[in-house]
Write a structure and sequence with these properties.
Distance between the termini: 21 Å
Largest sheet: none
Structural class: mainly alpha
Shape: globular
Length: about 325
């Protein structure tokens, strides 16, 4: 009979934990990096208009999901979820919110408003917190209230300097924040692949109708797929995996990382969008915009510091409350 294993963590156990965290960080960085480069993909799809891009994104996203489900042999799980009315109803609402987000985002990045889109994703974490208070009746810590208040000041500063409310930023932030809130309702039962599949199934009729209308009427340049060369067609097809892969990587990283670490990596996307908008697409950045972005970054630093502090406090509390090993 072998001797009993000594109590407490061992190096053999901590090493895999560190490896899992490392994998999670890489997955999160790749996911947010791909999202940050998305404006370049949409630019490469020119002369396709925003509505055509979103429609093909839905169609080829569903094709990619179908292939992924076939390879992972998870048809049974997806069919089981689709048989549940509550799940389908919640996913229908999620589909509406994400198609609004996609459409506004593509319109923004293809019409010279990538910087405004970046602002939307900078303030998204703060909007998510605000939605938690309003919808879920969550209680905020003082620093969280401070961060939300500062972000509101930033929106006012940018609005005054820009001459109008930054609607693109606000619609993107609130639509994605609401999308996350809705997904949270089924997060324990619906995996990322099945969820994306169900959402795109809901959206497929809308995509088909949009493509037919564009093709018949010629609105927005009509349908350019297969009519602008094989490179353009290939780029269009790539919108499928470009939509699905980051989401699947994000879902996998979320299972491996703490919320504080995951929250820190999410700022990579809007930073890259800002770089693309200013340096590659040569969008104007007025002084008021820089001031507004600077105020948002201050709010995000406060939010990040508070998150790490709260995480450290919870770990200490758990350590104190844990019984000593015998």
């Amino acid at each position: 009979m072998s001797e009993p294993t000594p109590a407490g963590p061992t190096p053999a156990r901590s090493t895999p934990a560190r490896s899992e965290a490392s994998v999670g960080v890489v997955q999160a960085i790749v996911a947010y990096g791909l999202w940050g480069l998305m404006p370049l993909l949409f630019a490469a799809m020119a002369p396709a208009g925003a509505f055509e891009i979103v429609s093909w994104r839905i169609v080829f996203g569903l094709v990619f999901c179908a292939v992924a489900i076939a390879l992972t042999r998870s048809w049974r799980r997806t069919r089981t979820l689709m048989a549940q009315r509550r799940v389908m109803a919640v996913m229908a609402l999620a589909a509406v919110l994400i198609v609004v987000n996609w459409t506004v985002y593509v319109l923004a990045t293809t019409t010279g408003h990538t910087v405004e889109a970046a602002l939307g994703y900078f303030i998204n974490p703060l909007v998510t917190i605000a939605l938690g208070v309003v919808v879920l009746r969550e209680r905020l810590r003082p620093l969280q209230w401070t961060a939300v208040g500062i972000s509101a000041v930033a929106v006012i500063v940018i609005s005054v300097g820009y001459g109008q409310v930054p609607w693109i930023s606000l619609v993107l932030a609130f639509s994605f924040g609401m999308y996350g809130l809705v997904k949270k309702r089924v997060g324990g039962t619906v995996d990322a692949l099945s969820g994306l599949t169900i959402e795109t199934v809901w959206l497929l009729p809308l995509a088909i109708v949009t493509l037919v209308v564009l093709g018949v009427t010629g609105l927005g340049g009509g349908v350019t797929f297969l009519g602008d060369g094989w490179v353009h067609a290939l780029v269009t097809v790539l919108t499928g995996p470009a939509t699905a892969v980051p989401l699947l990587l994000f879902a996998s990283s979320a299972r491996r990382l703490s919320l504080s670490t995951l929250g820190l990596t999410q700022y990579l996307t809007p930073i890259m969008q800002l770089v693309v908008g200013v340096l590659l697409q040569h969008e104007a950045m007025s002084a008021s915009r820089w001031v507004g972005f600077g105020i948002v970054w201050v709010a995000l630093v406060i939010l990040t510091v508070d998150s790490f502090a709260a995480n450290r406090t919870s770990r200490r509390t758990a350590a104190v409350g844990a019984p000593d090993a015998a």
